[in-house]
Each structure stands twice: as C-alpha cells, then as structure tokens.
Amino acid sequence: MTKLTVKNASRRVDGTDILSTVSIEFNPGVTGLVGANGAGKSSLLRAIALLDPLSEGDILINGKSVIGKPQTLYQQLGIVFQHSPCFEHLSVTEFLHYIAAMKGIRRHVAEGQISQWLNKVNLSSVKDRLMSDCSGGMRQRVGIVQALLGNPNILLLDEPTVALDHNERLSFYSFIKDISKTTTVIIVSHLSDDMEALADRLVFLAQGKVIKTGDLDALKAEASQSQTKAPLAVDDIISHFLTQTNETHEKEEVLCGV
C-alpha cells in the first residue's frame, strides 16, 4: 500500500499564490479534488507529479521525499491529462512501447500489458493505426492505457473522461474502481458523473487552499442535515459545501468521441 503525502505545499507565480500551505495525505482509493475554476485542483496534480516546482513544502511517498527525484516518483506514477501528449508519427502500439521503455518496463512485460489494456479500452483493432489518424476519443483512451502501464501505485487523473462516450466511461469507471482497491487514485473532473461513480473521498479547494476533506458517506451525512432533498447525490454535496465558502463548482456538458 502506498501513502502519498503533500506537506505544507505552496506555489507562487509572479507574487500570486497558486497553492497555499496545502497538507493532505492520500491512500488507496479514489479521492476527488473539487472546487471552482482556478481553485488549484490541476495545479495540485501538477505539483504532485513534479511538473510544476513548489515554492515551499514537500511531496512524500511512504514518508520519503521525492522532490528532486523524479525517476523515483515516475516508477510509481501514472498520469492522465485532459489532452494527453502523443507522438503523431508513431502507431498506437509504438507509442505505448515508447512510454513503457521510459518507465523502465521490459519489452516482453510491456507487450502483455499493452495487449491487455488495449483490449479493455476496446482499441485492439486499431493498435497499428498512426496516432495522427486516431480520433480524440481514441487518443484519450490511449492516454489512459499509457498511464496504467507498469501498474502504478499512484494514478493522477485530470479530466480523464473528456471525449469518451457513455459506454467508454462506464468501462473506465469499472476498471478504475477495481484498481483503486490497491492504488492511490486522485481525480479532477467537472463531470459530476465521474465523481458519483468513482470518489470515495472529496477534497475541497478554494484559492489554492484545502478548505474541507472527508469520506463521501460522512460528507453526505453532514450535508443532509441542512438539506430537504434525499438521497443526496455527489453534486448536491459539492454544491452544499462550496456554497458555504461562496465558491461555485463549474459544470460542463459531456464531450463524446468515437
């Protein structure tokens, strides 16, 4: 089991606090980061991934700092961004083998994992297609596969279901819930369906600060004390606590791809 700790993390850019003394522990299961646009959700993911340097604070895995040790982190980390980078001149399989090699996964091991995950995301039939010829939805699914190569202990998901259609999202929910039994998963999404299907715990951010955390059941119980609607959905819980801090949670329509 892997424990990820963010300790007194701050990030300032041109005198503006993007993150402000954020301290939080993440354990196996799915934690959803919620807050208004610009609250610091994606900035926190990028800080955890060592993509954006901290001005102060630390990122630790099982009590050991990974600041300045990206290789130590990346051997245990998978990342899905809203627009995952890809090499358009490579085929789907070639791209995934490239990522696997970057992660230090032996080729024969990578072959088995690539085949397994392409089958799970229904891309086996296009494994030899150039990335440049893939639709947005296909590229997003390839981005999900590259993150899962090497069976990472920590998985960061930033708008992971953008461009996925309904059935693809349901499949994504299923295998993420399954791997989250032993994997620390952190998700940012404007789609309440993603949080409803996946999150065990919510972390609320506002202006770069953590303003509230809690397990979903406990948050539901707390929010229900002042709500007449029952049962409460995750979106009701998010709206309840963000309203208390005069923040609003941005909603977006689902973008569907092939």
Morphology call: globular
Structural class: alpha/beta
What number is the mean pLDDT? 89
CATH superfamily of the largest domain: P-loop containing nucleotide triphosphate hydrolases
Number of contiguous helices: 9
> What's the structural domain tally?
2
The run of helices and strands is: EEEHEEHEHHHEHEHEEHH
The total count of strands amounts to 10
* Largest beta-sheet characterization: 6 strands, mixed
CATH topology of the largest domain: Rossmann fold
CATH class of the largest domain: Alpha Beta
What share of residues are in beta strands?
Answer: 15-25%
**Name given to the CATH architecture of the largest domain:** 3-Layer(aba) Sandwich
Low-confidence stretches: 251-258
Q: Percent of residues in helical segments?
A: 25-40%
Whole-number radius of gyration? 18 Å
**Going across the major beta sheet, what is the strand order?**
6-7-8-3-9-10
